[in-house]
Specification:
The complex is a heterodimer of chains A (286) and B (428). Chain A is an alpha+beta fold. Helix content of chain A is 24%, strand content 12%. In chain A, 43% of the residues are buried. Classes of the chains: A alpha+beta (286), B mainly alpha (428). The interface between A and B is large, with 52 and 48 residues.
Chain lengths: 286, 428
């Protein structure tokens, strides 16, 4: 099944040589550098607080970024009507089984029953500091260097579900092997492959992605070879494409002229559970 | 020494034992068959979901790892700190620690979505994960324990390999790893002294490793900032203390019910009981602190966890199993001013062990059962999206099967191992 997939399209090809090697090595270098300057600073009488915060700031800036794209979303809750077209669109695109939904729509997110309802569509936030990839014992889930998308290598994943407990946003789902009546084995729909990660897997009992943790990949199978999406050609994350109220804006935060960058400049975006310092790449406009 | 008579005395099977063994055998057969079905069919046969992705098996995993680390740390009291009173239970504590480690590893193995890839952890380690470090620590820890047990038993094993006949002779030969006990008493004594020194050094290395093994299991949870019920520096310490509590409890039970020795029990057991009681009270103090700080903080997500534990649908796990069975009753039993009675202490021990299981359940499940966003568990309709996880019969029966099989294995193995120094070989 996966053997027929062209090698360059497989997710592991995008894997950094060592998982997270660049960020950790970078951090160590920063720490060493900061240690030297810090020592000088102490000798020079600088405050201990400065000394402590220097390596932190160095880690924050993520110096020497190899990122070609910085994909993310800006979701306008005022335009969301709670129709769940994004949920359906995602399901059709990624052929997810019951119990797995890469995006969900929450309502009642605010405690004000007498006022108009607020809906919130919630894909994976592809955090800058994803706590889920940190805990993976086998490096099966990681943040891609090229575009910052957090992916799962289905062949590496052992299904321990530690990442699910570590995600503060409930973006991860376990594939228990359940089927809809119309996608049960030996039905025509069961043979429809999912384009996920351009691997075109057919779900078969006992084989990945069954038994794996699954999540939103910003429909990265729709990227071209250079890693670009094309909204005009329909190669655009399914939820953003399907959104009836144009509430879901997708794009490259690295490009100052992109719609998402402009929205962030012009409007006040918030990130959920910002206090956890995960730095989500999905912002909400209230 | 007279261990001979003591052991012979222990041999006659008490009435009712046959029924217990029959029950264990039935459980083992049905449970292992159920487990086979689960391994073949996948995790879909469990009641787990995407809101509560860890359940009964993870609770059993940390339970047995805790029992193992606790037993091992108690054994270091003997081999490192030379607490002579405990010496008669040294080998038992080590055997218990080894069996419990295997049980813990079995439980985490059967919890994997792709158990056939468990080896990935060894081959593709991601050094940023506590789980990776744990996996490697387990191997080191097992190595230390097996080496210690071999050092303790090698002289007896070598002797037994010459006394036993047929297959068992080969087994003892294998277990002694080719060690031959010299006939010369002076040489014998020299080797014995060497063993004691090596045991002490191994135990010294073993202490941080065992603390790492179970403190690390606590850290596994403590580092998860997404779960307010887990995230905090107290958690690894709670794990270590509760490990000592459960390890002491199980040792009390095994010593008085499964492997008694009338000669030394009145010395060993009360000492062990006092030690365990102390750890238990310390553990309760930590529990109190956890609640105090959490309730004082008043963060909604954190409060929700305490509410689930104390007043949720499974409140009885906390008030009944954890506090009444696991703490109040054993504390009462252990502090009563009555003459020594081995079985009473053993019973108190097993109650403590049962109570710690409640602790483990409440560590794993309630913090996960509070959805990460209000209403997230109702975002779409699916049995896998429920915040109310109840282990189903497949999870229970396979768990009990594994434990029953281990109990039978220990029951078979203990009389066939030199559990006491200079224990004479008895044909079985």
């Amino acid at each position: 099944m996966t053997d027929q997939t062209p090698a360059q399209d497989r997710v592991p090809e995008q894997r950094p040589e060592e998982p997270k090697a660049y960020s950790r090595r970078g951090l160590v270098q920063h720490l060493l550098g900061a240690g030297a300057t810090g020592l000088a600073a102490v000798l020079g009488g600088a405050s201990v607080l400065d000394l402590l915060s220097t390596p932190l700031q160095a880690a924050e800036s993520g110096g020497g970024n190899k990122r070609a794209f910085n994909y993310g979303m800006v979701i306008d809750t005022r335009r969301c009507v709670g129709c769940k077209a994004c949920v359906a669109g995602c399901k059709v695109e990624n052929k997810t089984p019951p119990g797995v939904s890469y995006t969900v729509v929450l309502d009642q997110i605010m405690d004000r029953p007498e006022d108009k309802p607020v809906f919130m569509t919630k894909p994976c936030f592809h955090c800058e500091h994803p706590p889920c990839t940190e805990v993976c014992p086998v490096g099966a889930t990681f943040k891609r260097e090229r575009d910052g998308i957090v992916v799962v290598d289905y062949e590496r994943c052992i299904g321990c579900r530690y990442c699910m407990t570590a995600c503060p946003y409930g973006a991860r789902y376990f594939d228990f092997g359940d089927n809809y009546p119309m996608t049960e084995a030996r039905t025509p729909y069961a043979d429809l492959p999912s384009p996920e990660y351009k691997q075109f897997r057919k779900r078969q009992a006992g084989e990945s992605p069954i038994g794996n943790v699954r999540k939103c990949s910003f429909c990265m199978h729709l990227q071209d070879d250079q890693g670009r999406y094309d909204q005009g050609a329909g190669r655009w994350p399914s939820c953003a494409k399907t959104c009836t109220g144009h509430a879901i804006h997708f794009g490259d935060f690295g490009d100052r002229e992109s719609e998402v960058s402009r929205l962030l400049r012009e409007r006040q975006g918030i990130r959920l559970k910002d206090e956890l310092d995960t730095h989500p790449n999905v912002y909400y406009l209230l | 020494m007279n261990t001979h008579s003591a052991h012979e005395a222990a041999l006659p099977v008490p009435a009712g034992n046959g029924m217990v063994v029959g029950l264990l055998k039935a459980l083992a057969v049905v449970g292992l068959a159920t487990l086979g079905y689960r391994l073949w069919a996948g995790l879909g046969v469990t009641a787990l979901g995407s809101i509560v992705p860890w359940g009964l098996w993870v609770a059993f995993y940390i339970y047995f790892i805790g029992l193992s680390a606790g037993s091992f740390l108690l054994s270091t009291l003997i081999f490192v700190f030379r607490v002579e009173k405990l010496e008669p239970v040294g080998r038992l504590a080590l055997v218990q620690a080894i069996v419990c480690l295997f049980l813990g590893m079995i439980f985490i193995f059967i919890d994997l979505g792709h158990w056939g890839r468990a080896w990935h952890v060894m081959l593709f380690p991601q050094t940023g994960s506590i789980l990776t470090w744990e996996s490697y620590l387990y191997v080191v820890y097992l190595g230390i324990m097996l080496s210690e047990l071999w050092l303790l038993m090698r002289a007896d094993l070598s002797l037994w390999s010459r006394q036993a006949k047929g297959r068992m002779a080969a087994v003892y030969q294998f277990l002694s790893c080719g060690f031959v006990d010299p006939a010369d008493p002076a040489e014998k004594e020299a080797l014995r002294t060497q063993s004691i020194g090596r045991l002490r050094r191994l135990g010294l290395v073993g202490i941080p490793v065992a603390l790492g093994v179970h403190g690390g299991t606590g850290a596994l949870f403590a580092v998860v900032k997404a779960r307010p019920g887990w995230n905090g520096p107290l958690f690894p310490l709670v794990f270590i203390v509760s490990a000592l509590v459960s390890g002491g409890g199980l040792l009390m039970f095994l010593r008085s019910f499964i492997h008694p020795d009338n000669e030394t029990d009145h010395e060993v057991l009360p000492f062990l009981a006092n030690l365990t009681l102390g750890f238990l009270i310390f553990d309760l103090a930590l529990l109190f602190l956890e609640f105090l700080v959490g309730l004082y903080g008043g963060m909604a997500d954190h409060l929700a966890v305490f509410r689930l534990i104390a007043a949720g649908p499974f409140w009885y796990i906390f008030w009944g199993l954890q506090l009444t069975v696991g703490a109040v009753i054993p504390i009462w039993m252990l502090t009563r001013d009555v003459p020594f009675q081995a079985k009473r202490l053993g019973l108190a021990g097993i109650l403590i062990v049962a109570g710690i299981f409640g602790v483990r359940m409440n560590i794993v499940i309630p913090p996960l059962a509070v959805p990460v966003f209000p209403g997230y568990d109702h975002a779409f309709h699916s049995i896998r999206m429920t915040a109310r996880y109840v282990p189903n019969w497949i999870e229970w029966v396979s768990s009990l099967g594994i434990i029953a099989a281990a109990a039978l294995f220990v029951r078979w193995g203990l009389p066939r191992l030199p559990m006491d120094e200079h224990q004479p070989y008895v044909e079985r």
